[in-house]
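Good morning C.,

I know you're traveling, so I'll keep this short. The sequence:
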Amino acid sequence: MTAIAADPGPGLPPRLRLMSYNIQAGMETRFYYQYFTRGWRHVLPDAGRLPNLQRIADLMSGYDLVGLQELDGGSLRSGFVEQTRFLAEQGGFPHWYQQTNRPLGRLAQHANGVLSHFGAYQVTEHRLPGPVPGRGALVLHLGAPGAELVVVLLHLALGQRARLRQLAFVAGLVAEAEHVIVMGDMNCHADSPELRYFCAEAGLSEPHHDQPTYPSWRPQRNIDHILVSPHLAVESVGVLDAPLSDHLPLTMAIRLPAALRV
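The tokens, ready to paste straight into the viewer:
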């Protein structure tokens, strides 16, 4: 576990607009064959990446809290642009937090990040278990001690056994928290055994869990999720028709209980 310097900001509002989005390091993908014809973009810079990041930033600007997966922390392939910072600045988010999970020097800096209009008073990074290193959980505590909202950002492994171990670990992280949001690319369907186990262990649910987000050009799989604890009232859930990555962004609007409005 690594603690990150936090910067608490204004108290939480009655309503939060959430987004979870795997942005594929800013690469627009509209067809399956582009995984092969444009695969070089995973290691080399391209002229279309920064304009696409700007479109992503514009899309996110209407939300309060955004969890992002598959960012680049500033390396050759992104033109040495720290994408979390760029999206925060261009999208108008005063607070941003990044976890670099696979640092490959100048070639790639694989990361996840959270953009927020509200500062966290505590932020921790956790390395998730699994046979292949490079997966993590970024945990934010918003609000104030004793009246806190715990937000967890994930990008889980491809293998089911590894996902089970990772979700068991995360369930332990949030076991004592009353108000929790877990979001990210889980690489599994809502009705998968591992996600059902996690929701039961952590006391979370996913209203309207039949929202496909992948692939962006013909969404068929609901592998991106926003899970919430019972005291967070879900007002709406949706998927935006914004094929700026190989995933589509998942959104949710929730109403916070009075105890969190500090």
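Safe travels,
E.
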